[in-house]
Design goal:
The complex is a heterodimer.
Chain A (H helix, E strand, L loop, with lengths): L2 E2 L7 E8 L4 H8 L7 E7 L6 E5 L2 E5 L1 H4 L2 E8 L18 H11 L1
Antiparallel strand pairs in A: 1-6, 2-3, 2-6, 3-4, 4-5
Chain B lengths: L1 E9 L5 H9 L3 E5 L6 E9 L2 E7 L11 H13 L3 E7 L3 H13 L4 E6 L1 H6 L3 E2 L1 H8 L3 E3 L8 H14 L13 H15 L4 H4 L2 H9 L3 H8 L4 H19 L3 H20 E2 L10 H9 L5 H41 L4 H18 L2 H17 L1 H14 L7 H8 L3 H7 L6 H10 L9 H11 L4 H26 L10 E2 L8 H35 L8 H12 L3 H22 L1 H8 L1 H4 L6 H9 L6 H9 L8 H9 L4 H13 L4 H11 L2 H29 L1
Helix pairs in contact in B: 3-12, 7-9, 7-11, 10-11, 14-15, 14-16, 15-23, 16-23, 18-19, 19-32, 20-22, 21-22, 21-31, 22-31, 23-32, 24-25, 25-26, 26-28, 28-29, 31-33, 32-33
Classes of the chains: A alpha+beta, B alpha/beta.
Chain lengths: 108, 708
């Protein structure tokens, strides 16, 4: 099943496969470095839940969920980083335990 | 002396302004690009016998005409033809920056690339092959560290060296497209060669490419030509042919290939270590705290509070001294000049007006110091990140929050703060909504009225007024976004730049810019407005006092007891003052529009007070007290007089609502005019404010009557 960038959880990385939009937004996203085959890493969501912060080519970029849902991704991987939560107060890798990880694997 | 015209262009957050400051120092002029609210910063400096004129173009990622900043930048490069373009790039994000560079190459400009933050580049272990880049760009590529002013002389030397050889349009054919597209470009170029005047002004290859991309701005230019339609249909045919051949939109392919070029060039010239997402640097560490789910908002709240306190409380401290100084000057003039109209004009009109402008200055300087710190350190982008969800509800950008919040202190710096928004429509909406944030000058009016009519409940009543202001602001933002700024919402996507220490130079320049802009561009308007209102309140001078006063005068002249005499004279002066303002032009206007205010339960006194309040809202208090004949006193006496004259809770509340919502003060109008750069929006703001004030005030009064 195709996944989109807005579905990525903090602490996960993935590869961009396509930008599924044809408007000004695509232009802007591409200018900012969202291109095919680039790796994105989801850092966090804003305290109010939206927008989100991702890492891309060494830059930290923030975008709204409504914008992220046009970016198709593939090959999701979990990365353990101290201090990052998944927006529900749980740290990825740390504090999640096996159960948490298994649950995330299942969701994938 | 030879002059070299330079344009500075680069992505946001690449240190463009730092370089600009390093080059020009304080010799800068801030203005607007004609017709839009985009800031234009120019400067000049001398180096080795050359005069450099430099324009700081807005920070952009691309020259596609999608945003006003991009249009302004491209127009400048195409129409003004600067001799040299300094293309500043952040060495750590070269691939992204090269997209803009590739667009510059097509414009046949002289690109002098500078790679900024070269120390960070080296620290991160990125290796850039400068020689190879130079052969591609055909000009020198200079590594610099703008913050430490390193590498700047090398850059200028390179430009001068080129100038000595003679600067001409640089034809760069290193960016080549798909064979079929190249064929079409060649064909269109041939057609364009025969059009008179085009060759001299534009790069034909660039024109052809933009025509293939159906660039609306370029199509406009072509349409105006004699053979415009012929050219357009020729291009259309070529585009159709290409679509059949390649099976994809030509514009998309051209864009893709430009990215491909940027990527290829990066691969050739840059060696980077693989990005390790698990590495946590300083910025990540700070963000883990500052953007934390639970701590993010409280920290933001604390920073906001600090900004507000520093601006308005510390600002008030300095404003106090300015006020004292102005008062001192006024009393000196008062003593030196003999009584008369000229003296009144100078003391009350001009010195009073200038004082009214100067008291804003400390606030503006301090607010912009804080904003400059927030911007330069990188926190402002985080503000947008934290507040975006709340502000997006209003159709505004997260950064608008700072501007609106500052409005509670004073609308003038609040509106000026709207400049930090990237999008023009957002700037205009934020500026127009700002006056509904109840500024601190309105508070004395609320305190007076609520104190008189609501006594113990005054606090709650005043709170409800503030709340009403916020509600009206929200409704207004929604209204403007639905009816006037319908365009598809601009993408929010933005960079969260690494934290950096702001430089002293940049902070000082920023503060100086704002302060001088306020004095130069707004001071005049505010002064004229203040004098105008003063004139309306002062003339006619030969007031025909009523019989009662005349009788009183006669009675006083007969008195011998000095103590009683002074008492009566004082009383007489007060009644005279009252009559004078009542019979002045503004008083006449007040009487004339009294019927208009009747439905709100207000009389001529309130009408006049609201009129004088346009100079500054706090004046409403003193006018009311004069007109009710309590001679500047605002305590029990005034309360009794107002109540005796038929004022009640309902009118009181309606009056507060009116003060909250109607025309902001002269200074605010000047600020709106300045920041929206449009007379139309300024007039809209004033009339809309009055209409809204009237409507809400009417509703408040009618509902209020039901409860009395």
């Amino acid at each position: 099943m195709t996944k989109f960038l807005n579905e990525l959880r903090p602490g996960q990385k993935a590869k961009i496969t396509m930008i599924d939009d044809n408007s000004q937004l695509k232009q802007k996203l591409m200018e900012m470095g969202f291109r095919e085959d680039k790796e994105v890493f989801m850092r966090r969501r804003a305290p109010l839940g939206d927008p989100m912060e991702i890492s891309l080519m060494g830059n930290n970029i923030s975008l709204r969920k409504s914008e992220a849902r046009f970016i198709k991704i593939d090959g999701i991987e979990n990365i353990c980083i101290k201090g990052l939560g998944d927006g529900r107060g749980r740290g990825l890798g740390r504090g999640l335990g096996r159960k948490g990880f298994r649950k995330m694997e299942d969701e994938k | 002396m030879k002059t070299i015209k330079v344009a500075l262009l680069g992505n946001p957050n690449c240190g463009k302004t730092t370089l600009f400051n390093a080059l020009t120092g304080a010799k800068q002029h801030v203005g607007n690009w004609s017709g839009v609210t985009v800031e234009k910063v120019e400067g000049e400096f001398k180096y080795k016998g050359y005069e450099f004129e430099i324009v700081d173009l807005p920070g952009i990622y691309s020259l596609e005409p999608n945003s006003i900043e991009e249009i302004v930048s491209r127009n400048y490069i195409v129409e003004e033809e600067p001799d040299v373009i300094i293309n500043i790039v952040d060495g750590t994000t070269l691939e992204r920056s090269l997209y803009l560079t590739s667009q510059l190459m097509e414009l046949e400009t002289n690109i002098f690339m500078v790679i900024n933050m070269y120390d960070e580049v080296e620290k991160k272990g990125i290796k850039i092959d400068l020689k190879k880049l130079e052969t591609f760009l055909k000009n020198k590529v200079t590594p610099i560290i703008a913050k430490k002013e390193k590498g700047i002389n090398e850059l200028l030397d390179a430009i001068i060296e080129k100038e000595k050889k003679g600067i001409k349009k640089e034809v760069n054919r290193n960016l080549i497209y798909n064979k079929e597209i190249e064929k079409a470009i060649l064909k269109i170029t041939t057609v364009l060669t025969n059009v008179k005047g085009l060759k001299e002004k534009y790069s034909l290859r660039w024109l052809s490419i933009t025509l293939l991309k159906s660039d609306p701005k370029i199509l406009e230019i072509i349409s105006k030509l004699e053979k415009g339609n012929k050219i357009k249909s020729f291009v259309e045919k070529e585009k159709e042919k290409l679509f059949k051949l390649l099976g994809e939109n030509v514009a998309d392919i051209i864009t893709e290939e430009k990215y491909g070029f940027a990527m290829g060039l990066t691969r050739e010239c840059v060696k980077t270590k693989k990005i390790d997402f698990t590495k946590i640097d300083f910025t990540e560490k700070v963000d883990n705290i500052i953007l934390n789910k639970w701590l993010g908002l409280p920290i933001f709240g604390a920073i906001l509070w600090l900004t507000f306190t520093l601006t308005f409380n510390v600002g008030a401290y300095f404003a106090n001294y300015i006020e004292k100084g102005v008062f001192g000057i006024a009393s000196i003039v008062d003593n030196l000049m003999s009584a008369g109209m000229l003296k009144d004009l100078i003391v009350d009109g001009i010195i009073g007006g200038v004082g009214g402008i100067l008291v804003f200055l400390p606030q503006i300087v301090l607010l912009f110091l804080m904003i400059a710190i927030l911007e330069d350190s990188g926190y402002m982008a985080r503000v947008a990140f934290i507040m975006d969800r709340a502000m997006h509800f209003l159709g505004l950008h997260g950064k608008a929050f700072i501007s609106l919040f500052m409005g509670f202190g004073c609308n003038v710096p609040g509106i000026m703060a709207a400049r930090s928004l990237e999008n023009e429509e957002d700037r205009i909406v934020t500026a127009l909504v700002n006056p509904f944030m109840s500024c601190s000058a309105r508070l004395p009016v609320y305190i007076l009225i609520a104190g008189i009519f609501f006594e113990k409940n005054a606090g709650n009543v005043i709170f409800s007024i503030y709340l009403l202001g916020i509600i009206v602001a929200i409704l207004t933002a929604k209204l403007l976004k639905t009816f006037f700024f319908k365009s598809e919402s601009v993408p929010f996507v933005m960079e969260l730049p690494p934290y950096r220490t702001p430089t002293k130079k940049s902070l000082l320049i920023h503060m100086w810019d704002r302060a001088s802009m306020f004095l130069k561009k707004m001071g005049g308007v505010i002064l004229i407005g203040s004098i105008l209102i003063w004139v309306l309140g002062y003339f006619p001078t030969n007031v025909n006092y009523s019989e009662k006063i005349k009788k009183q005068e006669v009675k006083i002249s007969k008195l011998t007891d000095t103590e009683e005499k002074t008492k009566l004279i004082e009383k007489l002066e007060n009644s005279k003052k009252l009559e004078k303002i009542e019979k002045s032009y503004i008083g006449q206007i007040g009487h004339a529009i009294e019927p208009v205010f009747k439905p709100l339960g207000m009389g001529w006194r309130e009408a006049i007070a609201l009129g004088t309040g346009i100079v500054a809202k706090e004046i409403v208090v003193s006018t009311i007290s004069v007109l009710y004949g309590s001679g500047g006193e605002t305590g029990e006496g005034l309360a009794k007089k107002m109540k005796d004259n038929g004022m009640n809770k309902a009118v009181g509340y309606a009056l507060m609502v009116f003060v909250l919502l109607y025309v902001p003060c002269v200074a605010t109008i000047a600020a709106i005019r300045r920041e929206t750069n449009s007379l139309k929006w300024t007039i809209f703001s004033v009339t809309y404010g009055i209409a809204i004030a009237y409507t809400f005030s009417f509703i408040a009064y009618r509902i209020g009557l039901l409860f009395i």
